Amino acid sequence: MLAQGRRVEKLELDLAGFIGARFAVALNSGTSALHLALLALKIKPGDEVVTSSYVCTGVLNAINYTGAKVKLADINPDDFNISVDSVKRAISRKTKVIIVPHMFGLAADMDGLRKFGIPLLEDCALSVGATYKGRQVGSFGCAAVFSFYATKMLATAEGGALVTNNREINSFARDRRDYDNKDSYEVRFNYKLNDIQAAMGIQQLKGLRSFISHRQKIAAMYNNSLSDLGIRLALTAAKRTHVYFRYCIRGRDSSDNIIKKLRAFGIEAKKPVFKPLHNYLGLSDKEYPVTAQVYKTVVSLPIYPLLKEAQARFIIDKVRSVLK
Ligand SMILES: *Cc1c(COP(=O)(O)O)cnc(C)c1O
What we know:
Helices cover 39% and strands 15% of the residues. The radius of gyration is 20 Å and the shape is globular. The protein has helices spanning 6-19, 30-40, 57-66, 84-90, 110-114, 167-176, 195-226, 255-264, 277-280, 289-297, 309-323; strands at 23-27, 48-52, 69-73, 95-101, 120-123, 131-132, 135-136, 143-147, 160-164, 240-241, 247-250, 298-301. Helix 3 (57-66) links the parallel strand 2 (48-52) and strand 3 (69-73). By secondary structure, the protein is α/β, with parallel strands linked by helices. The N and C termini lie far apart (56 Å). Strands 1-9-8-5-4-2-3 form a seven-stranded mixed sheet, with helices on both faces. A three-stranded antiparallel sheet has the order 7-6-10, with no helix packed on it. A two-stranded antiparallel sheet has the order 11-12. Helix 1 (6-19) runs parallel beside helix 7 (195-226), helix 2 runs parallel beside helix 3 (57-66) and helix 2 crosses helix 6. Bound molecules: pyridoxal-5'-phosphate. Residues 29-31, 55-56, 58-59, 101, 123, 125-126, 147, 149, 160 line the site of pyridoxal-5'-phosphate (PLP).
């Protein structure tokens, strides 16, 4: 098969097994996975969906596809995840679901978020393999979404998946991803992953543990060698394993200068989120003070499975010279 076939089925079984969930539905993107998850939860105009301001616009798009209203929450200053206190202020009687992105490889506060009694949709695009209290992210919410875009933890060029223990959500997503050969008409989509992509995904998933341990090794080098510079380093948290999708440092000043100087050395330092959602929506930085401050000051350093230790040492050297 070129299109959706047996390799897609195998990737689904492998992914569900890895996460420890009953079902996985492979899809053509993380955005499609969010869209189908929201439709499966019957999100519609008039409903409200809460999510973090500090995430990519893919999340905002998926909410807007459904016609529901987005309510943004601020983040924590240490792990960049959605803030439980801020979520508390954002929820209302119309809130039907909270989309919880696990940012940059570290799980959000699932215990704190579960207390609201509102369904949680986990966004694991940046954190597949991360654990919270010993369990894989993606196994806590009513469903979880994954992206296999080229730069993510698992890459198939483009792709995604929806993972759930819920039989109805699983069969809804399976039905709606494919429009052909149906007895009755519903509005459906062409959201299928293909076997070429799935073949990559199966191999990527086999490599995931070694990818993660390499990322952790590079992160430990950064932690050890940058700790005396008076900047905040990536958080190492109790009861959560960090898979270091991004390694972020943060000083008090604007990150633009640091990024420019590192790039002059050929180091691709970046802001890890292009622009916070509240800025796109014309909402004030005063309402999202932590997101605004993090956005202004954070720098993500190169970290990926093929980054060599010698390259990491070069990066450490240059970061030290820039921040000194
Ligand atoms: C990348 C990403 C998405 C969207 O995934 P695509 O495959 O690019 O559609 C959604 N949420 C988060 C947190 C992401 O990082």
